[in-house]
Amino acid sequence: MKVELGRWLDERPLGGFQIRLSLMCGLCAILDGFDLQAMAYAAPSLRQLWHLESEALGPMLSAGLLGLLLGALLSGALSDRIGRRPVLLCSTLLFAGGMLCCARADSLWQLLGWRLATGLGLGGVLPNAVALVGEYSPARRRASLTMLISGCFTVGGLLGGLLSAWLIPAYGWRWVFCVGGVLPLLLWAWMLRELPESAKWLLLRGRAEAAAHWLRRMEPKLPADVEWAQEERPEPRGAVRALFQNGRARRTIMLWLLSFINLIVLYFLTSWMPLLLHTQGLSLHYALLASSMLQLGGVAGTFELGYWMDRRGFEGILTVCFLGAALSFWQLGMIEDQAPWLFVVLFCAGYFIIGAQPALNTLAAGAYPTNLRATGVGWSLGIGRIGSVLGPSLGGAAIGAGWNAAALSCALVSLAVLLAALAWAYRQAGEQTGA
Predict the structure, then answer these.
(1) Cα–Cα dist 297/65, whole Å
(2) 277 in helix, strand or coil?
(3) At what angle do helices 174-194 and 16-49 cross, to 10 degrees?
(4) Which ranges of the chain have pLDDT less than 50?
(5) Which of 162, 208, 263, 423 is such that its CA lies 20 to 30 A from the CA of 291?
């Protein structure tokens, strides 16, 4: 009996296998977000303990992001070649070990090196988690589930801020890295036993028996004579080049620009906000809590925007989203005290900017076929990570040059308006190509 895998998955309800897979990948993404933000939350304490200037923190904040960039670029193409499972397992183990080594660092250079290694592992998680969950999801739930996985990354950043606000004043900055290293090791043990390989990817590689093994784990009552078929055909060698073939070039470039600029803004905010608020006179506890509003807004934005995007489409909602971010940044430049309004504005900024990033990841996942999906998401994130590396460094240079809150706000407003224009242009490109 011949069965087309994509159609079979689309006709099935979500079962325990898919829920466990989503839970594993979601927890991995949470720890990914937690570990990436750990450096920003530890930065105010390190600045005081090691007597560092603000400019010296820029490279340290960017080191993990540089590793993340390299990890995203390399892991996407690697997983399209050797599989999602081994790359995701190795990435999780690498970032767990890197975090534990960061906890033992005694100098700026040691910490910078271990943050680079940690970032390499972190960069391999999200592209493969999004691709793997998407490839086991029915079409009617695929966008919401992949956005959920991307949104878990933001949840991790939020939990990191809340936990750091308690851990650092009580026990010191090293404990944040200890927690960020032990928890993924525990998750890795579960993943080693239960994490499946993508059945779609296995079929495209001609490994029908291996695909059948995981599909029987998913549905034990499958008849013994099932012969699985796959509508998609393998792409030619040179997966990155294929992102620009068959009418994909224009939208690929726009996806890269959207991710690049959005992550400049996002990581400028998340990396420098705790320190900026602290140097403006807020207590460390209050500065960390206020900065956590960015992540809380991002979590709310991910889930609510996902609901509307399933119904109204991605590009139009993203255009409105970035215009909302521009308004939030304008308001942020006008706040001069510690009023509760600061929490509201930071929440809104996170809602629009951080909440938009999972949508961009899901947009990339849906733009490419199975054999290019991890490469497409990985390169979209990887090019974006160039922006994430530049964000903290540019922020440090601007602050060191004496930019005040109004000047920083004006720069952020300009970037948000540019993002809105790009989102609208992406929509127009899709209408012209029929995508």
Answers:
(1) 22
(2) helix
(3) 160
(4) 237-238, 431-435
(5) 423
